[in-house]
Sequence to fold (146 residues):
Amino acid sequence: MLLNIQRVSSASVEVDGEIKGSIGLGLLTLVCVMPNDNEQTCKKVAEKISKIRVFTDSTGKMNKSLIDVSGSILMISQFTLAANTKRGNRPDFKKARHPDEAKDIFDYLVKTIKDKAIPVKTGVFGADMKLKTVNLGPVTIPLEYD
Fold:
């Protein structure tokens, strides 16, 4: 699984002119499901996202987790994280899992994070989405799991 997490003070996702999800303080999390991802991968990712210390404490040090700050997640499926740009000028996305299978894994990841009592909002899997975000920092961290 390939992820890109961004610390935000707010973020929202719009589909066909309608806001589908929005959060205040938290993480905008872009997710690309890869061919070998399964429920175990989702559990590892959920554990990391819930505990990664990217929020600042009273001294300004990144020492607090999403749980510590009572933050939320806006989770967006993004197969383009698997872009192969080594040849030519048009990326290919052959490394990403087929959408029919990826949706089930993505949905399981969302459920796994919600089971940790973390509020999660999503867009619409496979839709053309517009994201609005106010990055906090900015802090952007790539994560990769297999």
Remarks:
- The chain has one domain: 2-144.
- Strands lie at 2-15, 18-23, 26-32, 55-56, 62-64, 72-77, 120-122, 130-144.
- The CA atoms of residues 15 and 124 lie 7 Å apart.
- The first strand starts at residue 2 and ends at 15.
